[in-house]
């Protein structure tokens, strides 16, 4: 018997599994495919909009939650975790992966240029994005300020990054502290492999892992950059070698930053690979490619997760279970053609907002996305009708939680890590209690 | 407009059977009768439909592309999504992207897909169609694994000598298309059958160990003729633990033929094999130290070739990997762990087809039950060999590039031994690193004091 079975290997599953393992518990991490972290931007959003842009997420949390409470009868996940778990979750993650992977401050948001030249608020970001930081805190100026000159550089062989569009839009943004950036577009050529005219971002990143390939890019950048300019490039500057970016930047000798691009997103992949490696090295037992088909329970306690091992089911016994399998994006939540929403792994009761779930306001919040499982403050899954635990040893974290509009709020990673540490700490203290 | 309305208002009574559809005939049978392409399709209709259904789940997230070990090292393969879920829509039975031939069928794409798309399965099926009319002689030959074993065993010293002679290998490469540097098995003078026949009864049980009843051992072709030590050690460990090990007469599972698109003959083989294994007992656990052959029986026969046979299903549900089986015993508190200490670092590579069995990596936990052992996981997706892929002269370089990081890691971390659960992967790792590479049971056998950990690897 394991101590804990964690279902799902996205950000919340990985972080919780590592924290549980570091507390000395045996942990099986079961997931059907690679988690969604790889598809993200490699940044940690805590709270970006409420709906106006948020400068100090933790200071503004109470007001945000009060507005949420007025608007919806489903509590926001942050109402359960509180600011301390957010702080601890983000700190824990950043410390786990180290400064080669994440830098920032949970208290203060920054704005980062996007692949359409907009400014997106976030709290932590890879060091390769630091030279593109625009501060939202007037007291602490960022790397880019009013009048800063940016040259957005596209790679001819890479089709998902159009520097004219980005530079054009970037120059139209009013900066939070007033003023605008100066931005222009330019191009380089860097086929990831000989003769390639259409290279994926990942292949370019892999090519740049090889120090011998970097010179070709460096020479072109040095030739085009003007004195005082900051270079913006697609986020493809090295994959497995965490020093690749710093080396390129040093060789060019100008400030330089990466802008995240659509999947395969290299910064998300770097973070996912790093966390997966930490989990495996700590001997979290990882079951990749295994669907969880259901669970065995008795007397309100989950006893085993039914894992769809090839050829037969494996009843994986554990003392506690953490559902961290994501929401609609991963198929954990499903909407059928009768507008009925269900949780597909354990068949849990869901918190569903009253009224229409999907409406036709383009770009507006869809109530459907706040559907999820309800929990108490220990992240134990409860029946929303009674507020009683569904199983005394079943916890939930991350995208499956009810009450958030993660994409609109820009709160996905913050919820994932805050609920993960909250659930992990509750499991650690409950299992320790059980042992006495 | 009025024509359309007329059509819509055709009275129901006029709707007879569809034109050309004979009573009891399925649409598929009708199409097969009129279309040579469908008639000659080596896939079953059911398997094709089953896997096509999963296409709609593809959200184009590209995770499979990022994980593909072949696309990582060569532009000759456009990647699992491009040849698979993307091209499948235009395929209509035939592949539109012939780089598909460079897919090694390792299955890493399906394993990592978060949306349950059967990428590798779809691609294996499409390749069978693509190769149907021009199957190289080489691919027909190298898939005859059982025949190879039977032919080589009586002449083992000569065969092993011949396989080391450069001029002979060059000739083989020119005539047959097997690369001159590709790893070859080491022929043994005695097959596992010969060993079982000549040994003086089962190995002794551990002191005080009560009888645990019978289990069936599936040896696999390589475990019968080439990796005989793995089979011997599995049998002896099981006997040491109190099991009676039944080894019925058994043939090949057909995996090599399956991965080369020779479905008809592979289907017959896997069914026959499972009938043979069933003959030893219809309820018994079947244990295998041949990682990829177990995968074939557990799911590939069904999911790629559409085999729906009661014997295959029955054996598939009862089959356990050796490490999986021993670790299950441990989790039930039934595995003695009075192992002797083996102070060593062991690089371990989980083969693709063991990874794809959805059971995690039991070998790591199992070996680390032995005091002193620290396993270093390769963290690589594939060793490159992928059964017969890395033997082929046109794919040898790709296979070596796929395995490069793994080889370096094995060379860097080994203390005289590397571990991997599948035979062809071991040949690849041995050939490319020069490091002795053994099945996990070899380590357990030594830890129970039944042999030295540096006893012969084959």
TrEMBL record, chain A:
Which terms does the record give in the GO molecular function aspect? glycerol-3-phosphate dehydrogenase (quinone) activity
* SUPFAM superfamilies in the record: FAD/NAD(P)-binding domain
One Pfam family of this protein, by short name?
FAD_binding_2
State the Gene3D superfamilies in the record: FAD/NAD(P)-binding domain
User: Which ranges carry the FAD-dependent oxidoreductase 2 FAD-binding domain?
Assistant: 3-414
**The entry's keywords:** Flavoprotein, FMN, Oxidoreductase
Q: Which residues form a coiled coil?
A: none
EC number of this enzyme: 1.1.5.3
Presence of the UniProt keyword Oxidoreductase in the record: yes
Name of the protein in question: Glycerol-3-phosphate dehydrogenase subunit GlpB
From TrEMBL, chain B:
Instruction: Indicate the enzyme's highest-level EC class.
Output: oxidoreductase
* Source organism superkingdom: Bacteria
Key words, A-Z: 4Fe-4S, Iron, Iron-sulfur, Metal-binding, Oxidoreductase, Repeat
EC code(s) of this entry: 1.1.5.3
User: Which parts of the sequence belong to the 4Fe-4S ferredoxin-type domain?
Assistant: 49-78, 92-123
A single GO molecular function term of this UniProt record: glycerol-3-phosphate dehydrogenase (quinone) activity
InterPro entries associated with the record: 4Fe4S_Fe-S-bd, 4Fe4S_Fe_S_CS, Cys_rich_dom, G3P_DH_GlpC_su, Helical_ferredxn
Gene3D superfamilies per the record? Alpha-helical ferredoxin (1.10.1060.10)
Spell out the Pfam families in the cross-references.
CCG, Fer4_8
Region (Disordered), start-end ranges: 1-21, 191-212
- Where does this protein have compositionally biased stretches of type Polar residues? 1-10
Protein name from the UniProt record: Anaerobic glycerol-3-phosphate dehydrogenase subunit C
